């Protein structure tokens, strides 16, 4: 890896890319390929910081062949479903291979237009001027824990999923996992398969569960094919596929969802790819329970009125994008704090400001970031 600290920050109007995760690195590489100077600013001390912090057993839910970034495929030796550590190795190699200008230890707190340029206010009192800005600070930025009533009364261990690494500390213990998205489902299965005494999964809305691969055909490819089909058609096909591929777990407390698969996707809920949850629920190793309503006298109160006393609670309720301090003053975020445009499009209110990595499509986030990178580079090289 190059010595990131040796790269000077200059004011010769480069494109500044905020964030050295997959989206930021891809955008910088695509810009460099088109002859546009891009400087990547990263607040941590290395690339792929969020990936380094994910739990140990995590693998990509998208295939290696469809997860490579522009200009460098993922190595075949990584296998079809790439492990967390290999994703990190790939990102390190990617920055080195493309000779990206990467400055670590610099956090950008606010960006604002100044004439035809953009000014970035960064740590150390830096004031950087660039011709454009690409924001790639990440979909999973700031852990979100609901403000449950009585939470302070809980005396057991409580941690956000971002702090979970492996099941070893929970051997023989009673654990409640809150949230039935991909992260919560996988952590629950991880705990159940490695000796936790009891594992319960608090479910607010029953998720759609899909097989990661069926007869060699990855779910990601289906996601790519159906993205532009009518919602009702995809919902109908999803119901049929679920009946064939996924057993009915209603008697185990995990019913099939009422809303269709693509209807839920359009609402922001990505299907859960099964990497062990179905078998764990079917065999009783993971017990679905009602959503968490509150905490009272050290107990967890569920939405059905029942009270349980787990030794530990793992909160897998997602993240905030946390873009408000950076760009909230520019009118470029929707009511949920997400960018109103992404990829090669730039907001009318803020020409020259681009976003990548703030969607979570069923076609695969890394694939979409690769596509976004090329679109951003094309727009900025005109």
Say how many strands there are: 22
- The helix tally amounts to 10
Q: How confident is the prediction overall: mean pLDDT? A: 92
Helix fraction bin? 25-40%
Q: Largest beta sheet: what is the strand line-up? A: 3-2-1-7-22
Describe the global form.
globular
Largest sheet: 5 strands, parallel
Query: Which percent band covers the strand fraction?
Result: 15-25%
The secondary-structure class comes to alpha/beta
Task: State the low-pLDDT regions, or none.
Answer: 1-8
N-to-C span = 31 Å
C-alpha-based Rg, rounded: 22 Å
Question: What do you see in this structure?
Answer:
The chain is of the alpha/beta class. It has ten helices and 22 strands. Strand 4 and strand 5 form a beta hairpin. The longest helix has 16 residues.
Secondary-structure blueprint:
Layout (H helix, E strand, L loop, with lengths): L14 E4 L3 H12 L4 E5 L6 H4 L31 H14 L3 E4 L3 E7 L2 E6 L3 E5 L1 E4 L6 E2 L13 E4 L13 E5 L3 H11 L5 E6 L5 E3 L1 E2 L2 E2 H8 L4 H15 L15 H6 L5 E3 L2 H6 L3 E5 L1 E5 L2 E4 L4 E2 L3 E4 L3 E2 L3 H4 L25 E3 L9 H16 L2
Parallel strand pairs: 1-2, 1-7, 2-3, 7-22, 9-20, 10-11, 10-20, 11-16, 12-15
Antiparallel strand pairs: 4-5, 5-6, 8-21, 13-14, 17-18, 18-19
Helix pairs in contact: 1-10
Task: Put the structure in a nutshell.
This protein is an alpha/beta fold and 382 residues long.
What attributes does this structure have?
22 strands, disordered N terminus, five-stranded parallel sheet, 25% helix, alpha/beta, 382 residues, single chain
């Amino acid at each position: 890896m190059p010595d990131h600290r040796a790269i000077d920050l200059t004011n010769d109007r480069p494109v500044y890319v905020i964030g050295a995760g997959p989206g930021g690195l891809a955008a910088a590489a695509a810009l460099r390929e088109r002859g546009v100077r891009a400087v990547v600013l990263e607040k941590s001390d290395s690339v792929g910081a969020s990936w380094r912090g994910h739990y140990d057993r995590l693998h990509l839910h998208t295939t290696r062949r469809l997860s490579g970034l522009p200009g460098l495929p993922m190595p075949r030796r990584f296998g079809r479903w790439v492990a967390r550590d290999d994703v990190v190795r790939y990102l390190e190699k990617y920055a080195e291979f493309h000779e990206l200008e990467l400055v670590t230890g610099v956090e950008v707190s606010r960006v604002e237009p100044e004439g035809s340029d953009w000014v970035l206010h960064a740590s150390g009192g830096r004031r950087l001027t660039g011709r454009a800005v690409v924001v790639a600070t990440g979909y999973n930025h700031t852990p979100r824990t609901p403000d449950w009533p009585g939470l302070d009364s809980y005396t057991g261990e409580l941690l956000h999923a971002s702090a979970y690494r492996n099941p070893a500390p929970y051997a023989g213990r009673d654990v409640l996992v809150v949230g039935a998205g991909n992260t919560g489902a996988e952590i629950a299965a991880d705990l159940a398969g490695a000796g936790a005494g009891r594992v319960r999964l608090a479910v607010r809305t029953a998720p759609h569960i899909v097989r990661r691969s069926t007869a060699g055909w990855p779910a990601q490819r289906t996601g790519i094919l159906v993205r532009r089909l009518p919602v009702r058609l995809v919902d109908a096909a999803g119901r049929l596929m679920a009946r064939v591929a996924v057993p009915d777990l209603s008697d185990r407390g995990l019913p099939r969802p009422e809303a269709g698969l693509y209807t839920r996707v359009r609402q922001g809920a990505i299907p859960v790819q099964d990497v062990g949850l179905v078998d764990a629920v079917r065999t009783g190793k993971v017990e679905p329970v009602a959503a968490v309503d509150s905490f009272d006298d050290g107990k967890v109160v569920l939405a059905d009125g029942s009270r349980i006393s787990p030794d530990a609670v793992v909160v897998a309720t997602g993240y905030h994008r946390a873009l408000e301090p950076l760009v909230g003053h520019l009118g470029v975020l929707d009511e949920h704090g997400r960018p109103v445009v992404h990829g090669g499009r730039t907001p009318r209110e803020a020409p020259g400001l681009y976003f990548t990595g703030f969607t979570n499509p069923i076609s695969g986030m890394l694939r979409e970031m690769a596509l976004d990178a090329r679109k951003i580079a094309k727009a900025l090289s005109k």
